[in-house]
Structures are given as structure tokens and as C-alpha cells.
Design brief:
This protein is of the alpha/beta class. The protein is 46% helix and 14% strand.
Length: 426
């Protein structure tokens, strides 16, 4: 059996690791990965930590997920340009419940997620300062990248974050025998702080390993949509369709790198997929493989099947060439499937008085466009389609435009689709 480090190294999942890590991984060990509860959902950047944890689990190691319910109240300065706004305890507990439920899907393979307020709530400031704070001199703490980059705007609260994360590692070493912490590359300073604390308090060596952050080829942060929205794991924040499309729209350069990180295909299979892709790049085999694997992992096989069928429906050339008879090629149950996964707006009105100016509909609640100016510009360049047909700016929608008496399909640009669903008042 190949060593775990060899496996994750060729996948590009290692940025930093401590000396001697390969030696301790010759036996089964306990390790952990932490997630602060600073939002209501994890995103695809966090997914790297989860996938890395699964690799360790597959090699027989015991993996714990730690939820930073108390460190979230402090705020990690790593990767932040300015001072954080402190979240309320109410928000933290709301976020904790959401993220815990997400991790439960993956934690079937691991242990039940641990909360660090289980021990941090018992800490007393004077005791913590004497027992933990004394283990670090100021120069050591100031030389952390997260501190150096924020020295002029860093609050004392954020400055203490590295000590609290170090204490987490110390606690989990003592109580769960964790000898390894894994996390994103921006966490290296916090991880080494924990290693230092355990070395001083327990006179023993533990280890750390960081994986890459999700970045573009130019090094800038990657993992967001064109609108700047994060790609969340929560289907209510990022629809499974939008999630799937994110991977489908990867560039070839990105896809060749990310298929190693985000899928569990072996080296030989990935090499074959890349070769097939290079022969016919227009078929986007590489992107489709990643999209399928990640959608099944985060959502489900059933969801992937639905999304795949939606893609077949929306990009069917028969619809493009026969848009006047869409109901010939799309069944009513097809539209119900589209309604489930595409951005959908329900409008209630009287069927007998049904009439909508297209300009008013397209800017309704900023659902598709934010202004009439934007609509007019897109109409001019045929970037908006009504039921896959072009239209003029003075077009008025009537009941004859409704597909199966309820639906209108809007296409914006090359890849974005929206559904209007009309309900009628009795």
C-alpha cells in the first residue's frame, strides 16, 4: 500500500508539513481539521480540507472535525486585510448548527464534530495567561504572517487567536491523542503555534500539514462566481445547478489541476481522462468528470442525475432551432424539474388580466437584471431570450407566452437560465 503522503503529494494537496511526519504516519494516528463557524455554510475552499481528511481516513487514520464555536467569537486574522467585526453569540450558534449538519454528511466516515467551546468556556483569563501565554514570547507571535500583515490594524482580540487555536491542538493531543493538525496554507502560523505549545508543555513533538488554498493561475483567490458570490455547499445558498455549472466552466488549466484535488480518481484514471480531453477539448470531458464527482460528494447521486438531465434539456439543439414549439420537446415534468433547480420566481396574479411588459418583468426585484438600461443593452445584443426567442424592448407578455399555462423561461447570456412561475388567484 502506498504511503498517504505519496498519495496526497502527487495530487498537489501539500503546501507545508513538519519534518518527521512521514515517520509517524507509518502507523495509524489521530488527527483533526478545524472549521470556524463564521458563516452559515462551508464553501468549496473548505471542501479541500474535507477531501484531505477522507484520504487520511481511507488510509486507516482516525480523523476528527473540530468546530471553532469559541474561536469564531475571536476571529482569525489570517488572510484578512482589515479588522473583523465581532459576531454575536446568537449568530455563532446559528452558524454552528448549520455547519454541524453539513459535516454530519461527511462525518459518517469520521467522528461526531467536536466543539471547542466545550473546553474554552471553562478557561479563566488569568490562568490562561499564566499557563499558556507564558509559553510564547511577543517576538514569536509578531513574526507570524497573519500578524505582520495586519500589525497596524490588528486588535488584541485577534492577536490572541493563535494562542486559542494552539490550545485547541494541545487539548486534543491530551484528550484524543491527536498528533497532527491539517488545514489551509493560511493556517500554517496557527498550526505551528500549537506544535510549539505541545512541545513546551508535553515535551513531545506533534505535526502539521497544510493544503493549498483555492486560487487561480495568477495566484488570486478562486472559488467564486462571476458575480463574486462564494460557491457554498448549502444548496439554499448555491443551487446544485449553479454548483455543477461552476465546475463545468473551469478553464482547461484549472481543471487539470483541480481534478487531482477534488476527485478520488487514481493517477492512471486521471492521466487517461486528461489524454481524452486533449484529443477533444470541446467535449469538456475533464470538467464534466469533476462536476459529476463533486456534485455527488456534496449533494447526492440523485441530485447529479437531475442536474445532468437539466443540462441535456437546456442545451438541446432541438429547442434552439424549434423555439416556437418548446412544449414539443419539453414536457411539463421537465419544467417542474427546471423549477426545482434553476433560479425561480413565483408571481401570483389573475389569469384573465394577465399582461406584463417585458421590461418590467426582467427588472422585477432585481431577479434577472438590475435596471432597464441593462435590459435594453442586453436586448440590443440578443443577450436575453424569452422562451429561447429574441424579442423587442416594447414586447408585452400575454398568456400565449406561458408554457403549460404557468412557465416562462429566460436565458441571459450563454449559460444563465431563469424560470418565472405564474400562479393564478381564484
Amino acid at each position: 500500500m502506498r504511503k498517504i503522503l505519496t498519495e496526497i503529494q502527487w495530487r498537489g494537496l501539500i503546501i507545508n508539513n513538519t519534518n518527521g511526519l512521514s515517520d509517524i504516519l507509518k502507523r495509524k494516528v489521530s488527527l483533526y481539521s478545524g472549521f470556524d463557524t463564521t458563516s452559515s455554510s462551508l464553501h468549496i475552499g473548505n471542501l479541500i480540507s474535507i477531501i484531505l481528511s477522507i484520504h487520511f481516513k481511507n488510509y486507516g487514520h482516525q480523523v476528527f472535525f473540530l468546530l471553532g464555536t469559541s474561536t469564531s467569537l475571536i476571529g482569525d486574522p489570517s488572510g484578512k486585510k482589515g479588522k473583523r467585526s465581532l459576531m454575536t453569540r446568537h449568530d455563532m450558534f446559528f452558524y454552528y448548527r448549520k455547519i454541524r449538519n453539513q459535516l454530519f454528511k461527511f462525518s459518517k466516515q469520521f467522528q461526531i464534530p467536536i466543539l471547542n467551546n466545550n473546553w474554552n468556556n471553562k478557561l479563566k483569563f488569568i490562568d490562561f495567561s499564566r499557563n499558556i501565554g507564558k509559553c510564547f514570547d511577543i517576538n514569536y507571535m509578531l513574526n507570524k504572517d497573519s500578524v505582520k500583515k495586519r500589525r497596524l490594524s490588528l486588535s488584541f482580540t485577534e492577536f490572541t487567536y493563535q494562542l486559542l487555536q494552539a490550545y485547541d491542538f494541545y487539548y486534543l493531543y491530551k484528550n484524543q491523542k491527536c498528533v497532527l493538525q491539517i488545514g489551509g496554507s493560511d493556517q500554517w502560523g496557527n498550526i505551528t503555534c500549537g506544535i510549539e505549545l505541545i512541545k513546551k508543555k508535553q515535551k513531545t513533538k506533534v505535526h502539521g500539514l497544510t493544503h493549498p488554498l483555492l486560487t487561480k493561475s495568477d495566484g488570486t483567490k478562486f472559488g467564486k462566481t462571476e458575480n463574486g458570490d462564494n460557491i457554498w455547499l448549502d444548496p439554499k445558498l448555491t443551487s446544485p445547478y449553479k454548483f455543477y455549472q461552476f465546475w463545468i466552466n473551469l478553464s482547461d488549466v484549472q481543471a487539470k489541476k483541480l481534478i487531482k484535488i477534488f476527485t478520488f480518481y487514481n493517477k492512471r484514471s486521471i492521466s487517461k481522462i486528461i489524454t481524452l480531453h486533449d484529443i477533444a477539448p470541446f467535449s469538456r470531458i475533464l470538467q464534466r468528470k469533476i462536476a459529476k464527482a463533486t456534485t455527488i460528494l456534496v449533494h447526492s447521486k440523485k441530485t447529479f442525475t437531475d442536474i445532468y438531465n437539466i443540462n441535456q434539456l437546456l442545451f438541446n439543439h432541438k429547442i434552439k432551432t424549434n423555439s416556437k414549439n418548446m412544449n414539443t420537446y419539453l414536457r411539463q415534468q421537465d419544467f417542474l424539474l427546471l423549477k426545482k433547480y434553476l433560479p425561480c420566481k413565483t408571481i401570483r396574479l389573475n389569469y384573465t388580466k394577465f399582461q406584463f411588459k417585458i421590461l418590467d418583468l426582467l427588472i422585477l426585484d432585481n431577479f434577472i437584471c438590475k435596471s432597464k438600461t441593462e435590459v435594453l443593452r442586453k436586448i440590443q445584443f440578443n443577450s436575453l431570450l424569452l422562451n429561447m426567442k429574441t424579442f423587442f424592448s416594447d414586447y408585452v407578455i400575454t398568456t400565449k407566452d406561458l408554457i403549460y399555462n404557468h412557465f416562462i423561461l429566460i436565458k441571459k447570456g450563454k449559460k444563465n437560465f431563469y424560470i418565472f412561475y405564474f400562479q393564478y388567484e381564484v
